[in-house]
Amino acid sequence: MKNRIRIERAILNITQADLAERVSVTRQTINAIEAGKYSPTLALGMKIAREFEKTVDEVFELEEGD
Amino acid sequence: MKNRIRIERAILNITQADLAERVSVTRQTINAIEAGKYSPTLALGMKIAREFEKTVDEVFELEEGD
DNA sequence: AATTAATGTCAAGTATATTTTACCTTATAT
DNA sequence: ATATAAGGTAAAATATACTTGACATTAATT
């Protein structure tokens, strides 16, 4: 699962901790997802996309193994 | 997490087992998600939407508690 | 140079998604 | 009436997401 979280965060100029708070998870969770260590739940993915005012597909992209 | 899986399945005229096979999960998983018992992973949600040729947001809708 | 903010990471624990196996009900077909 | 297809459900096991707490590293600020 690839994602554009880092880029979208840069556009909004917010930190991982900021985003974490906005979507009600921990900073470590955002860090892991942003690094592609695992893919989030659908609910969290949708909340993240919503913060960026983007669709889920604009923020996340399926890869081979997913 | 609300969803329109039942409706989209009806449009494609496919069974829960059919959809399950297409997205590589078990029939019980589709049944549970369709019934709203839990929300899928982002990867699975995206695969389901893709089968319906819809966006994630057209198939799934966030609710209060999510 | 020193301090602070931001990010990276890790281990252990909890929560939840998914599988497996199995059975039950309802509708449809033979 | 009986068989078959489709859906509903449940318990136990496994996989994975997420939390908590802590520490290390890098970037930015003064």
The chain-level structural class of chain A is: mainly alpha
Count of β-strands of chain A: 2
Rg of chain A, nearest Å: 11 Å
Number of helices of chain A: 5
**Greatest chain-chain interface?**
A-B, 17 and 17 residues
State the helical fraction of chain A: 55-70%
The total number of structural domains of chain A is 1
The share of residues in extended strands of chain A comes to: 5-15%
* Order of adjacent strands in the largest pleated sheet of chain A: 1-2
Q: Span from first to last CA of chain A?
A: 6 Å
Largest sheet of chain A: 2 strands, antiparallel
Multimeric state = homodimer
- What is the CATH architecture descriptor of chain A? Orthogonal Bundle
CATH class of chain A: Mainly Alpha
Instruction: Encode the helix/strand succession of chain A as letters.
Output: EHHHHHE
- Note the overall shape of chain A: globular
> Spans of chain A of 5+ residues with little confidence (pLDDT < 50)?
none
Full CATH superfamily name of chain A? lambda repressor-like DNA-binding domains
> Any idea of the CATH topology of chain A?
434 Repressor (Amino-terminal Domain)
Mean pLDDT of chain A: 97
GO molecular function, one term (chains A, B): DNA binding
Keywords (chains A, B): DNA-binding
InterPro entries (chains A, B): Cro/C1-type_HTH, Lambda_DNA-bd_dom_sf
Protein name (chains A, B): Transcriptional regulator
